Amino acid sequence: MILLLVRAGALAALAATAAACSRGTPAYDEVVRLVAPAPGALAPAYTLADETRPVLAAPRERRLDIPVPAGAAADYSFPLPEDFPGDLIATGTLQRARQMLPVAAQVLARGRDADGSPRASLTLPAAALGDGPAATLTLMLTTPPTAAEVEVVADPVAVPDGARLELAYGLSPAANVAGAAPVALEVAAEVEGGVTTPLWTATVAAERPEPPHWTEATIPLAPFAGASVRFHFRARAAGDGKPVLLPLWADPTIVAPAPAGAPRRRNVILVSIDTLRADRLAAGGAYRRPMPQIDAFAQSAVTFTNAWSVWPETSGSHMSLFTSRYPSEHGVTSFINAPPPTLELLAERLRRAGYLTRAFTEDGGVWAYAGFARGFSAYAERRSPDFVYRGEVDKVFADGARWVDAHRDRTFFLFLHTYQVHSPFSPPEGYRGLFKDIPPREPPPLQEFALQYDQEARYADDVIGPFLAHLAAIGIAEHSIVIVTSDHGEEFGEHGGFGHGRTLHEEVLRVPLVIAAPGLLAPATVAVPVSLLDVAPTILDLVGLAPTPGQRGTSLVERARAAAAGRPDPSAAGRPLFAEVDRVERVPFRQVSVRRDGATAIADLANGLTRCYRPDDRHELRPDDTCPELTALIAAHRAAMAPIGSVATQHPTDPELIEKMRALGYLE
Predict the structure, then answer these.
(1) Which of 140, 137, 122, 149 is nearest to 47 (CA)?
(2) Residue 70 and which of 62, 222, 341, 456 are 20 to 30 A apart at CA?
(3) Burial of residue 195 (number of CB atoms within 10 Å: 0-12, 13-18, 19+)
(4) Are 467 and 400 in contact, with CB atoms under 8 Å apart?
(5) Where is 451: in which H helix or E strand?
(6) Cα dihedral 639, 640, 641, 646 sign
(7) What is the pLDDT of residues 448-470, one digit of tens each?
(8) Pairing state between β 149-154 and 2-6
(9) What is the pTM of this model?
(10) Residues 643-662, mean pLDDT to the nearest whole number
């Protein structure tokens, strides 16, 4: 038997809850999480079927990249490092040109060369054989335990009245090896005195045709109310076949009702419509009005008409949204970087405060492996096979609606993200005739792209609008904080380009920002400049949590209340808003911008030039080079920015994702 004690910080979680209650905040309904790493540490996480969850323990796995020459035999042999002991099960993907082929789970045959060097062999997919280009084999090598039973044991925790244990379970893809025996899973409770009681059992077929996936379970704990319990999570072979015990126990959490009379805490729902410009909402100056339902929603909310991103791409901007830090600090300046463990993300902060955290997103720059899954009980990605941002807004928000329906009795943070209005623009058939009677305002070469963009925006609005209405219909909206925003905009020739990620002009940085908080914020329009760095501090303020140390943004609560009351906001005057970009395509794009009191300066660090725009040049079309005060602000910003902790290139462990990134040039 393998015994692993999980020192998961359960007592610390209880202490944090008690401290929060003593400050007068409502009691939390999530009492103890058995996966609760210490501050600055990361919980192990595992991905099944494009959904990443924190787990009690992960299998022993190592990644290996192997070149496969053209004309390789089906029984392919390759060198194996000396430090790969014992039996190994291989799963993975083989990439040949732009074709990616799954490699079935199989036990590696071990041997040695004439000089004694270790080798291994496996069977390649049939489509990888014969004439054709060389290939790359990315394998995940898993060492299965040799024991007849494996067990994870958690620290003892106090079980409150009315509690239940919620978790998800699954098997590693390596368990799907031919001839593997079914796996019997069991959760048991050990009380003081050593008496152990089985609570729940399930049998999972290890060898099955469908990909491995998570299955959720809820276990009543009524018989143990008031007791100190140590939970055991066990797995053993059940039936004929080879024992391959690779269980996954995801985020087991003890949940209990809030005390009678405690005020209900606010849910937080954050909607990110990737690449949506501010001027596609009515309040932002839309001339085609492609988003009437979100416009109507904004009428009952606080609308910030002068909100600015800090990075003109998905990854860096979203990580700034979640951390209230600049990309030059959190380090997420490309698709293959992740923030340091010492930097707490918004989901981690809300999870630590007792929130159930969930995310539904699409393929692209908010990948789980790049740190975005941190703090989420489950982080679902709709990954495309080829990294094309097709947009799946209908599926993402249907997932979100189903999840809200099933968890309306909980206090939660829900993140929903869609690429529907991101290029390539391909609106559904029924939307391709919209807006053709409205004269375009973009430069002629890109007018058709802008039209398709607006058609995509209308389609997104027709999906997101009913989702927002559904929140009200089921009684969730009245005790929820709903934020609708974007990470960056899109250029349609305003400064001679198309797309985003290469400039820091208005069209790629000004974004919509709508915050609805019934009973906390009255409807208002706020015209003073604000930053996406302000979103996380505002959320923490609205739910009664202390600000995160070191955050660069500020809460917008008082600013919104001042606008609703018609009062001036003296804090708005003179505040500089910075943005950055640092990336390389054929040429480097390294710029820093600042906006203050309507004036703008954009410093190009690659050529040393600074372009200045006066307050009366709102669309930044008449540059000059005379803005010494703004130039000084940029210099001071650059001097103050430094990476937090160690920011290193991340290497995803999902073989299919690795191969896709390699095909696109993100990995060697």
Answers:
(1) 140
(2) 62
(3) exposed
(4) yes
(5) helix 447-473
(6) positive
(7) 999 999 999 999 999 999 999 99
(8) parallel
(9) 0.92
(10) 65
